[in-house]
Design brief:
The protein contains twelve helices and 22 strands. By secondary structure, the chain is an alpha+beta fold. It folds into three domains: about 120 residues, no CATH class; about 230 residues, Zn peptidases (Aminopeptidase, 3-Layer(aba) Sandwich); about 70 residues, OB fold (Dihydrolipoamide Acetyltransferase, E2P) (Beta Barrel). Strands 6, 7, 8, 9, 10, 11, 12, 13, 14, 15, 17, 20 and 22 form a 13-stranded mixed beta sheet that branches. Helix 1 packs parallel to helix 3, helix 2 crosses helix 4 and helix 9 packs across helix 11. The longest helix has 28 residues. The protein is globular and about 70 Å long. The two termini are about 30 Å apart.
Length: about 450
């Protein structure tokens, strides 16, 4: 409505009776401000190019401007038959007034937009709209900071929207997640982004440098949340990360791989009680969805308790980069950004209901069955009760222990060939999910409520 009023006022101010006369003077005019860039061509009668990264209403503005300027019927699409522009001093003066008014209007509009969508401040740094920054969490060169510090990547979109946090490297040996986080951040153009993408690509940076899973204090960081500012190194890091996420984010994607020489089928893990998180999990769109609460002290579980929708991506094994699982993870993060309307429309993935598992089961090495383990089933393949999954050979007695599936389902993770002892988890099976457990999981609009003040 404001645009229509402005165009009406502009028409009265310039006094043009024939809008085509303006067009003959303007001819092919390139007009650019911070928030709008378009080319209007009287010959083709089209908006040749329009890019409005800050204010969607300006697309309509460009179309209205084209209609206001108009096109004379004698302008033909045939270049040979076009009437050449007429040069008249009065028309040129009026056109100059038109362009001056447009410049003033857009400048005022830019100021209003800047006030409504300010820069974000995180860890003492500011990131302006339409920009990206990478910086360490701590601005300190102390001995202690060496063990506490980790990088933060921030992309501040050119318009308002949700804030999505992505964490990786909570376990220092889980390399796939770190590369997924890096690639996903690199793929996002802040001028096309609505909202803010905050990436913590290597939370346990010291562990990543040394190839160690746990923190330097030998504690598992993903059992240390929400943390304590006066605790051990793991507790301090957990406390700071937990505070940043609660302060700045509407939702969380936490990236992981299998642990202890286990390989996970790409999957999303999510609490079943939060429909917002379940819908984000489904629109990550990769592999399968496993409904579980997560272990006590894990980031996903504790952030979910705090009221933010949170999911885990698990794909591949620790200790090395696996390209297939990395590519799937990047696609999933981008799909979530599109689902949350943070990126323009494009490929948005969705896991079918049939691939949502409410129950899973670990098949373990039996008592008296320690030795060399060899899987014979296929990761991701279906299994039936009684089917052989693998075997264990005792290297001293040559005794072979066959491992059979106790259920019908799908292999969603297994141990790689290695030496195992009784009780070691060998096969993770997703059980056939009864329809009643998933019939209420429907796609809903991406409406999130959270603690973010940005």
């Amino acid at each position: 409505m404001r645009l229509k009023k402005f165009l009406g006022t502009l028409h009265l101010a310039t006094g043009f009776r024939s809008s085509s006369s303006i067009w003959r003077v303007v001819d092919r005019y390139w007009f650019r401000t911070v928030y709008v860039f378009f080319v209007l061509d009287y010959g083709t009668r089209e908006v040749v190019r329009a890019s409005v990264p800050e204010h969607p209403e300006l697309v309509l503005f460009a179309q209205q401007l084209r209609g206001f300027c108009g096109f004379s019927r004698r302008y033909s699409n045939n270049p040979a038959k076009r009437t050449m522009p007429v040069s008249r001093p009065l028309e040129k003066a009026k056109a100059a007034v038109l362009l001056l008014c447009l410049g003033i209007a857009f400048s005022l509009g830019n100021m209003a937009v800047a006030e409504s969508w300010p820069a974000i401040e995180i860890a003492g740094r500011q990131v302006e709209p339409g920009n990206k920054r990478k910086f360490p969490y701590l601005q300190s060169d102390s001995f202690e900071a060496t063990y506490l510090n980790s990088p933060i990547f921030v992309a501040r979109g050119s318009r308002s929207g949700y804030s999505l946090c992505v964490t990786a490297g909570i376990h220092g040996d889980e390399l796939n997640g770190m590369e997924i986080a890096r690639r996903a951040f690199a793929a996002v153009d802040p001028n096309e982004l609505s909202g803010t993408l905050i990436v913590f690509p290597s939370v346990n940076a010291e562990g990543a440098r040394t190839g160690r899973r746990d923190m330097i204090d030998r504690r598992d960081l993903n059992r240390s949340f929400p943390g304590s500012a006066t605790g051990s190194i793991a507790s301090i890091v957990a406390d700071r990360l937990f505070h940043l996420i609660r302060t700045h984010c509407h939702a969380l994607v936490d990236l992981h791989t299998g642990s202890n020489a286990r390989f996970n089928l790409p999957q999303i893990r999510v609490t079943p009680d939060d429909h917002r998180a379940v819908n984000i999990a489904r629109h990550f769109g990769v592999g399968i969805v496993v409904l579980d609460e997560g272990p006590e002290g894990s980031l996903r579980r504790e952030i979910s308790k705090a009221g933010l929708p949170s999911i885990n991506y698990e794909g591949g094994a620790s200790g090395e980069f696996q390209e297939k699982e990395i590519q799937q993870g990047v696609r999933g993060v981008i799909s979530v950004l599109r689902y949350l309307d943070m990126l323009p429309s494009g490929e948005m993935l969705e896991v079918p209901t049939s691939k949502i598992y409410a129950e899973t089961h670990w098949t373990r090495a039996p008592a008296g069955g320690g030795g060399y383990f060899f899987p014979t089933c296929v990761l991701g393949g279906p299994v039936v009760e009684g089917q052989e999954l693998g075997y264990i050979v005792d290297p001293l007695t040559d005794k072979r222990t066959i491992i059979e599936s106790p259920y019908n389902g799908q292999i969603i993770g297994f141990a790689t060939p290695q030496i195992v002892l009784p009780g070691f988890g060998l096969f993770h099976i997703g059980l056939q999910t009864p329809p009643t457990r998933t019939q209420n999981l429907r796609r809903s609009p991406p409406t999130l409520t959270g603690q973010s003040d940005h």
